Structure formats: C-alpha cells, structure tokens
Amino acid sequence: MNIMQEFFRDTNSILKALYKRTKPIDHPGLKGQDREFFIREFLERFFPRKYIVGSGKILDIKGDTSQQADIIIYNESMPVFDYGSTKYFLHDGVLAHIEVKSSLNSSTLEKALDVTKSIKKLNKRESLASYSVPGSLGFKKSTGEIFSCLFAYEGLLKGQTFKSKVLKYYEDESSINNYVDMICVLDRYSSFIMEVDQKPEDLFFLETGEDGLMFFFLFLFEAIYEKWQSIPSMDSYLDIEKLLHKAI
C-alpha cells in the first residue's frame, strides 16, 4: 500500500468515527449540518485556497437556479451573490457539487438525485471545455457540465437493489447527461457513468470497501481540474451585448 492509499484509508476511518460520534444528536438538522461539515472540512484542508467550498444555489446564464446544494466547490475568482440565508453561485464558476447524506435509503437517494438533476438541467455555455478522466477509469463527458455527485456515510441499499433504484429514478430521463456523475457510500460501494454514449443500464458499480473515499476523491479531483481550466464569463449572465446595442 502506498502513502496516498494509506492516507485515504486513514481518513476514511476518521470520517466513520466522526459520523458515529454525531449519532446521539437528536435534532436531524443539526446532525446533518455536522456531517456536511466533516466533508467540507476535509475538502478545505485538502484543496488549495483558490477554491471556495460553500453551500447554496447555482445560477445559470438564463437566470434559472438549482435546488439548494449541500456543498459547492467554486472558483474563487468568480463572484458569489450572498443574500444572507441563501448564496448564489454562477454556473461557470462551479467546479463540482456534492450532496451529502447520512444514510442512503430509497427516500434519501431520491431527494439527493433531485438536487443533482436540478443542477444538470441548468443552461450552460457550450464554449466551456468538457471534462474527462484519463486512463482506464473515465466518466461521462459533456461540454460545460458540472460534476455532481452524492456522498453517503452509510448505505442501507444493497448493491443490486441500489442499482435498480437509480435506474428506476432515471427511467423517464431522455439524456444521460442529466444523470448523477458518481455515488459513493463510505466503506461500501461506488457507482458512476463511464462514458456519455453508454446506455443507462451500463451504470458502473464497484465494491470499493475501505478504498471508497480514494475513488471518490480521484474522480472529484479530475473533474475539478478540468473545469477549472475553462475560462469563466460574466457577460453571459448580464447579457452585455443586448445592453450595448441600446447605447446611443
């Protein structure tokens, strides 16, 4: 085992211990906030300061917004529109999204997928670079797409049941681009779409065990790096060309 693999396995154990420590908390909202904080803290300590890790809604070029998202990884050079209780992040600056669930069951899976779908359906500039993971592991590629994934501490759904639930959720979805990019259940399994031209039933499922966090981070890092290299634009959101045409 190399140093990086050992690091992720140790962190995996730490996250499990922190998760168990919050079980006595009676208030579901506070318990959920704490568990989101554990993942956010891990990301903030791991990534450079050029990224913002926050929560809020994502705003696209047509003024449409996503549902409230648990964790948004954002380019620090882009503005955040802060209304106090809600923050709006521009689509171009969002590098990745993570929805965090304590336990993955039929209900929490559907709620999390609702959030990821609301992000996937946002309008994007087609000039943005697509993302892909080089090597033998790769996930779907789509121009200007936000990598949107689900992280859960526990999974009450067994492998085949889990896969069938995901496919059932997307049975009326015409575009695989609107699928969640990755689902990771700590110490259990990971699942992801490998290529954009695959069929939905080809949803890739992997029993990752204690290496789940490592796979999760690998895919997250590659997606963030690829999206970060694209050039954000504020003009698209403000419709500058239309305003300039009105100039006398």
Account of the protein in words:
This protein is α/β, with parallel strands linked by helices and 248 residues long. The protein has one domain (3-245). Helix content is 37%, strand content 22%. It has a nine-stranded mixed beta sheet, with helices on both faces. The longest helix has 19 residues, at 3-21. The chain is globular and about 55 Å long. The termini are far apart. The relative contact order is 0.15. Mean pLDDT is 80; it is low at 129-140.
SSE pattern, N- to C-terminal = HHEEEEEHEHEEEHHH
Helix content: 25-40%
Q: Rg from C-alpha positions?
A: 18 Å
Low-confidence parts lasting 5 or more residues at pLDDT below 50?
Answer: 129-140
In brief:
The protein is an alpha/beta fold and 248 residues long. It has helices at residues 3-21, 28-46, 106-120, 159-169, 212-228, 235-238, 240-245; strands at 51-59, 69-75, 80-82, 87-90, 94-104, 147-155, 182-185, 189-192, 204-206.
Annotation keywords:
248 residues, globular, 7 helices, alpha/beta, 22% strand, 9-stranded mixed β-sheet
Q: Helices, strands, pairings?
A:
Layout: H1 3-21, H2 28-46, E1 51-59, E2 69-75, E3 80-82, E4 87-90, E5 94-104, H3 106-120, E6 147-155, H4 159-169, E7 182-185, E8 189-192, E9 204-206, H5 212-228, H6 235-238, H7 240-245
Parallel strand pairs: 1-4, 5-6, 6-7
Antiparallel strand pairs: 1-2, 2-5, 3-4, 7-8, 8-9
